[in-house]
Amino acid sequence: SLHTDIGYVRAPDMVGVGGCHIPQQVWIYLVLGVWVGRGNKDEYNAYDVTSISSYCNNSELAEFGYNRDGENLAQVNLGVFFGEKSGLPKYYNCYSGSITDKTYLPYIIQGTQELGIKISRFVLDKGFIRKHNIDYMIENELEFVICTNETTKVKDSVTRNIDDVKNPANYILGHSIYGKPDRYDENVNIHIFHDSEKAASSEKDFYARIAMYENELQQLKSLDGKTARKYKAYFDIIIKKDKSFTYEKNYGKIKEAHKLMGYFAYLSNVLELCSEEVIEILSALTSFDGRGAGNLSQYIAENFTTIDG
């Protein structure tokens, strides 16, 4: 069945059209063509994923995996494409709850292609930033804007441009931020942004987090390598054989982390895009969270009774 402005439309096995009967699959293609055709073919499309927890024990899709709500339940993943300008949902797919976002992207794109839905421009969050996803989109001539994670290469790019980003020439007036592009590799640009307001509001939380970590270290009697990882962002820690430890603030690390506050970056293989155009694309999707898969998941939770088993 398909949801449209007039409600849910269910396709029977054979559909009568103008005195003729056509197969269900052909009817679905026709309806999809009209629906998706209402969107802007040249717009970017945000891909959103949510997980729907389930008590069901006989579903092929309900499996244990990373649960966004922290629930110890099997789940089904739901991915949806929404148009940047039209706001229309263009394609959805339910898949096994154990499959991670970063591995499934090529398959959901192939699903749109099999249905004849032409989506060639994508906006993705950092959960999808894996080399095989980027390579797949480049090889298939798909345009993307994707949020970066904090890899060494990204940090190096930001650090290299940190003195230039806040040049007055890079100020984007309509959004009150600075933005500057730089070449990331042969096929991809990195767009580096600085939000001064965000940096200022984050500073108090930054130092509060360091103080909290130091208080935790003072309370701990022993420490293992795995637990020590989060503290090593700001402290030098020496763990002894009996797991007792010593620690000391590393002001060099703290200074470097503080220097990067307020910065964020996106990658794009559309080399002619300027940073202002990238932020305009992202801005058009700021209300996307209210229309996306997460909102649909909330609707399901509020309107359907959970049945154990």
Characterization of the model:
The protein has 309 residues and is an alpha+beta fold. The protein contains nine helices and 15 strands. The strands form four sheets. Strands 7-6-5-8-9-15-12-11-10 form a nine-stranded mixed sheet, sandwiched between helices. It is globular. The two termini are 25 Å apart.
Q: What is the strand and helix layout of this fold?
A:
Layout: E1 2-4, E2 7-9, E3 14-17, E4 20-23, H1 24-37, E5 45-54, E6 74-83, E7 89-96, H2 101-114, E8 121-124, H3 131-139, E9 143-147, H4 152-165, E10 171-172, E11 177-185, E12 188-194, H5 196-219, H6 225-228, E13 235-239, E14 245-249, H7 251-259, E15 263-268, H8 275-284, H9 293-303
Parallel strand pairs: 5-8, 8-9
Antiparallel strand pairs: 1-2, 3-4, 5-6, 6-7, 9-15, 10-11, 11-12, 12-15, 13-14
